[in-house]
Design goal:
This protein is an alpha/beta fold. 48% of the residues lie in helices and 16% in strands. Helix 1 packs parallel to helix 4 (94-100), helix 5 crosses helix 6 and helix 6 (151-159) crosses helix 7 (161-170).
Length: 262
């Protein structure tokens, strides 16, 4: 069976493409969840990677879970309540922990529908760029279930509590323009421009020193739940490391050289 995620590296940029367009890149099996987690571990261990783009093949970004499994009480919906709980904890819930905590910057290039777990998957990335064809829905309530993959934690941090409550309680689908207006995405582009713009942004990010990018991302993540004094202490420790990296020395030399040319 072909891999669910296509892994492509070009220089310091990795592109991960969900590649099951016939099923709208639905995220519904243990093998798929494990593949994403394993690729995150691969990227974390590869110091040559400085930025990741996540996108979907075909017309959808990710259509979320498999509703047929829910109907048939199979897959993630199979077994006793205790088995279902453990299935979430040891299955799809590994993805937000792995992807959200990935220590290189991530860009979701949302090419089409991002529904349910697909919407949450996009929010696990640091930056979201949407095609004009993209649609988003925190749609769990319409199926009589809750966001089991971290959406209730992610969505308020992205769009604020009021909008998060509206999207969660209605399950409504919003288009790319509304996603931009509420801050769910940072820009909306023509479909043919999506990957070129995601790539251009990734290149701008990847032009910066790798260790600094990883530590900066970690600080942003930690700032969401740390006290200011604790974050300042962590920042001081990271800065001490940064001052002793060869990338810092190279950046300073390049800056001073550019100043001489002015």
């Amino acid at each position: 069976m072909a891999d669910f995620v296509v892994y492509q590296q070009d220089g310091a940029i990795v592109t991960l493409t969900l590649n099951n367009p016939d099923e709208r890149n639905a995220l519904s099996t243990q093998a798929q969840w494990a593949e994403i987690v394993d690729l995150c571990a691969r990227i974390r261990a590869d110091q040559s990677v400085r930025c990741v783009i996540l996108t979907g093949a075909g017309s959808a970004f990710c259509a979320g879970g498999n509703v047929k499994d829910m109907k048939n009480k199979t897959g993630i919906a199979g077994g006793s309540p205790y088995q279902i709980r453990d299935g979430y904890r040891n299955g799809i819930q590994r993805i937000p922990l792995a992807l959200y905590d990935l220590d290189v910057p991530t860009i979701a290039a949302v090419n089409g529908a991002a529904i349910g777990a697909g919407c949450d998957l996009a929010m696990m990335c640091d930056i979201r760029i949407a095609s004009e064809r993209a649609k988003f829905a925190e749609s769990f309530v319409k199926l009589g279930i809750i966001p089991g993959d971290g959406g209730a934690w992610l969505l308020p941090r992205v769009v604020g509590m009021s909008k998060a409550a509206e999207l969660t309680f209605t399950g409504d689908t919003i288009d790319a323009a509304e996603a931009l207006a509420c801050g769910l995405v940072s820009r909306v582009v023509a479909p043919d421009d999506l990957m070129p713009q995601a790539r251009a942004l990734a290149e701008k990010i990847a032009a910066n020193p790798g260790p600094t990018l990883r530590m900066s991302k970690k600080l942003l993540r930690e700032s969401q739940h740390m006290r200011l004094d604790s974050l300042l202490e962590l920042s001081a420790a990271y800065q001490a490391i940064a001052h002793h990296t060869p990338e810092h020395d190279q950046a300073i030399d390049a800056f001073l050289a550019s100043m001489k040319k002015r």
